[in-house]
Amino acid sequence: MPFTPPSRTPSGPRRRTLLASAAATFALAGCSAPKSSIDSTGGSPSAADRARARAAGDSQALAERYATVITAHPPLAERLRPLRAEVVRHAAAFDTGQPASASATPTASPTASVSASPTASVSASASPSASPAVPTDEKGALADLAAAERTLADQRTKTLLDVPGELARLLASVAAAGAAHAYLLTEGTK
């Protein structure tokens, strides 16, 4: 049986053309450039920028806490230096274009002076440096560091829901690293 074309030719665009152009329009709208990091409410930083700054401050405070423990317990230095170096790299990853301070570089000596007050963007209730006193025994110092890592990892996990994609991935990665640090800190004491 031969194929016979329809008797009338449709006028206008075909259905496939309309669907393809609609899909392309939605794809382009979804791939548009992100909004500026400044809200339209008078130039205040966005929630993502505030979360990034807070995460950087928390990591810097945790690195200072590691340095304090290393200074108080020199036998733990070999074990804690790699973990502190990772925390410093986390702070640098959150820091947006600002060079790391001298006390936060991975090559900084463990006896470097540590400021007594955390950065202004870190609240005392959620900060890993809320208890600045280092326990006199090594086991207690390691347990305190592990608790600080766990608390910060939990806090970052909760923040994931409120931030956009790339920052959420970074927070998730750093939270996982913090949980691994907490495990490594407690595993050696068993």
Radius of gyration: 26 Å
Task: Categorize the overall geometry.
Answer: elongated
Could you give a short account of the major beta sheet? none
The total of beta strands comes to 0
Number of helices: 5
Order of helices and strands: HHHHH
pLDDT averaged residue by residue = 73
- Helix fraction bin: 55-70%
Overall SS class: mainly alpha
Describe this structure in words.
With 190 residues, this protein is an all-alpha fold. The chain is built from five helices and no strands. The chain has helices at 15-30, 47-72, 77-94, 138-159, 165-187. Helix 3 runs antiparallel to helix 5 (165-187) and helix 4 (138-159) packs antiparallel against helix 5 (165-187). The protein is elongated, with a radius of gyration of 26 Å. The termini are far apart.
What is the strand and helix layout of this fold?
Elements: H1 15-30, H2 47-72, H3 77-94, H4 138-159, H5 165-187
Helix pairs in contact: 2-3, 2-4, 3-5, 4-5
Offer a concise description of the structure.
The chain is mostly helical and 190 residues long. The chain contains 5 helices and no strands.
Protein traits:
mainly alpha, 190 residues, 5 helices, elongated, 55% helix, 0% strand
